[in-house]
Design brief:
- The chain has three domains: 212 residues, FAD/NAD(P)-binding domain; 76 residues, no CATH class; 146 residues, Polyamine Oxidase, Chain A, domain 2.
- The protein is globular and about 70 Å long.
- The protein is an alpha+beta fold and 485 residues long.
- It starts with a helix and ends with a helix.
- 25% of the residues lie in helices and 23% in strands.
- Helix 2 packs parallel to helix 15.
C-alpha cells in the first residue's frame, strides 16, 4: 500500500513545499482527504481552477483504509470500507414511492423490470449461490411473473444492488482520484497533516481558513502548535460530523444549523484482523458443513454442531472475497456472539501466512479490551493480548472446538474509528428526521456564503454506512454550484 506521503512525493514533489513559502489563494479549497474530498477534487480537476485539497492525517482515503501485514504483503485487508454498491436499476430506493416508480423502473441494460422475470433479472447480476439464497428467501414469490414484483419483498432496494471491491485494496480508489487530480493541472495541490480550525470571511479574497498542522506517528495523528492561514474563494467541507462541529465558523453556530448538525446517532463498528501461520479454521469448517448449514435440518446433517451453538451460524457466500482470492470457498460466518461476523481473508501466496477477520463487531467491548494487556505487534492499530484472548474464546465457541486448539497469532490489527476526526464507524439519522430538510439546510448552510458541506451523514439517505451516499452529496453540490465541465 502506498501511504499518503509517498503518494504525494511520487505525484508532485513541488506540491509539498511549506505554505509559508507560497503566496496562494485557492479558487476552491476542499477540506477532507477521504472518498468525498478526493472525489470532489477529482470532479473539479478540469474546471480551470486553482484547487487545494487538505487532509488531517498523513494518509489519503479516510475510511478507505487498506492495510497489509508485512508477513503477508499480498493480502490487502480493509480497516474501513471494503465494498461498494453498484445499482442495477433506476429505482430511487424510496419504498414509499415504489408504486409511482414501478412502471418506469428499468435495469441498467434499459430493459423494463415489468417485462423481465425475476430469474431473468437475477441471472444478469448474481452468482448461482446468490440466486439460490434469494430464491430460498422468496420461496413462491420468486415465481411471480415480473422482476418488478420482487421489490415489494426487498427493503432498502437490496435486490437491485451488487457488492464489489477493488482487488488490490479499496484505498486505491481515493489515491487514484488524487493522482488524476494532481496530473490535471499544476495549479492543483494536496496538503496532508492539516486540521481546519476556523473559517472567517475576507472581503478581498473570500475566506481565510485557519489550519493547525498535525503530525502522524505509527498511524496516530496529533495536533502541533503551528498554525497556517490560507485564503480561498469557495470551500467544500467533506469532513466527518464530529470534525465539522469543531470548526469555528459563524454560520455553523446558528441555532437551526447547529441543531440540524446534531440529528445523528453514532454506531460502533470494530474490526479485528489476526494473522496466523496457517488457516487453522478451515480444518473446522469444511464444505460439507457449509452445504448442510444452508439447509433447514442443519442439526441433523451437521453433527459437529452442538444444539446450544446452532444459532451461531448463518452462512453467506462472500462474493467480494471469493472474487479477490481465487482459492477454496470461504464463507462469512455471522453469529450472535460478540464477534458478530468472521471472514476468511485468504492465504498469502508469498509467505503462506493466513489472515482472518476474527471480529467485525457492533459491540463496544473491544475498545475496552484494547486498553488492557500488551500490544501484539508494533503500530497504533496493533491488537492487545486481551483482544486476542477474547477473540479466541468466542472463535472456540463458534467452531465448537477447545480454545487450546487455536494457535497464537503472529500479528493483529484493530480498527474502531472512535478517535478524532471520527466518533464511531458510521452514523444514522435520529428517529423522525426529515432527510430532505436536512439536505436543504446543510449542503449550503448560508445563502450568502460559498461554503458547502458534502457528507454522507447529511445526504438524502438515512445512513452514511455506504460511501456512495457521500458521492451523491458531492455530485449534487458540484452539479448545482460548479457546473458540469
Amino acid at each position: 500500500m502506498v501511504d499518503g506521503n509517498t503518494l504525494l512525493a511520487v505525484l508532485c514533489v513541488t506540491m509539498v513545499m511549506s505554505l509559508a513559502d507560497r503566496d496562494v489563494c485557492h479558487d476552491v479549497t476542499v477540506v477532507g482527504g477521504g472518498i468525498g474530498g478526493t472525489y470532489a477534487a477529482w470532479k473539479l480537476r478540469h474546471h480551470e481552477l486553482n484547487i487545494g485539497l487538505y487532509e488531517f492525517s498523513d494518509r489519503l482515503g479516510g475510511r478507505f483504509y487498506t492495510y497489509r501485514f508485512p508477513e503477508a504483503p499480498d493480502i490487502p485487508i480493509e480497516l474501513g470500507a471494503m465494498r461498494y454498491l453498484t445499482q442495477k436499476t433506476n429505482f430511487s430506493g424510496d419504498l414509499s414511492s415504489l408504486q409511482k416508480e414501478l412502471p418506469f423502473i428499468v435495469s441498467d441494460d434499459n430493459a423494463s423490470l415489468s417485462d423481465q422475470t425475476i430469474s431473468e433479472f437475477f441471472s444478469k447480476y448474481l452468482s448461482d449461490e446468490a440466486i439460490e439464497m434469494v430464491t430460498n428467501i422468496l420461496k413462491f414469490n420468486s415465481h411471480n411473473p415480473t422482476a418488478a414484483h420482487v421489490l415489494h419483498f426487498m427493503p432498502e432496494n437490496f435486490n437491485v444492488d451488487v457488492y464489489m471491491t477493488i482487488s488490490e485494496g479499496i484505498q486505491q480508489l481515493p489515491e487514484h482520484l488524487v493522482k488524476q487530480f494532481i496530473g490535471a493541472s499544476r495549479n492543483h495541490s494536496v496538503h496532508t497533516n492539516h486540521q481546519l480550525i476556523s473559517i472567517t470571511r475576507n472581503s478581498v479574497d473570500g475566506y481565510t481558513l485557519g489550519f493547525m498542522q498535525t503530525v502522524t506517528s505509527d498511524g496516530k495523528t496529533s495536533p502541533t502548535s503551528q498554525f497556517i492561514s490560507v485564503c480561498s474563494h469557495r470551500v467544500i467541507l467533506t469532513v466527518p460530523p464530529p470534525a465539522l462541529l469543531q470548526i469555528n465558523l459563524e454560520t455553523l453556530q446558528q441555532r437551526h444549523i447547529l441543531s440540524t448538525l446534531k440529528t445523528l446517532n453514532y454506531h460502533v463498528g470494530v474490526k479485528v484482523f489476526l494473522l496466523y501461520d496457517y488457516p487453522w479454521w478451515r480444518d473446522h469448517l469444511i464444505k460439507s458443513d457449509i452445504d448442510s448449514l444452508n439447509s433447514y435440518d442443519s442439526l441433523h446433517k451437521c453433527p459437529k454442531l452442538k444444539n446450544q451453538y446452532s444459532n451461531y451460524y448463518d452462512i453467506l457466500h462472500s462474493g467480494y472475497t471469493d472474487n479477490r482470492y481465487d482459492e477454496h470457498i470461504r464463507p462469512t460466518l455471522i453469529s450472535d456472539l460478540p464477534i458478530d461476523m468472521t471472514l476468511d481473508f485468504g492465504i498469502s501466496n508469498r509467505t503462506g501466512r493466513a489472515v482472518l477477520l476474527a471480529a467485525y463487531s457492533v459491540h463496544d467491548l473491544w475498545s475496552e479490551l484494547q486498553k488492557n494487556g500488551e500490544k501484539l505487534n508494533l503500530g497504533h492499530h496493533s491488537v492487545s493480548t486481551e483482544v486476542v484472548r477474547h477473540a479466541h474464546m468466542y472463535l472456540a465457541k463458534l467452531y465448537n472446538i477447545n480454545m487450546t486448539v487455536i494457535p497464537t497469532p503472529t500479528a493483529g490489527v484493530i480498527s474502531h474509528w472512535d478517535q478524532y476526526p471520527y466518533k464511531e464507524a458510521f452514523s444514522t439519522s435520529k428517529t423522525g428526521v426529515d432527510k430532505e430538510t436536512v439536505w436543504r439546510t446543510i449542503h449550503k448552510p448560508s445563502a450568502v456564503d460559498n461554503i458547502f458541506i458534502a457528507s454522507g451523514s447529511y445526504s438524502k439517505r438515512t445512513s452514511d454506512a455506504w460511501s456512495e451516499y457521500c458521492l451523491e452529496a458531492v455530485e449534487g453540490i458540484i452539479s448545482t454550484y460548479f457546473g458540469n465541465n
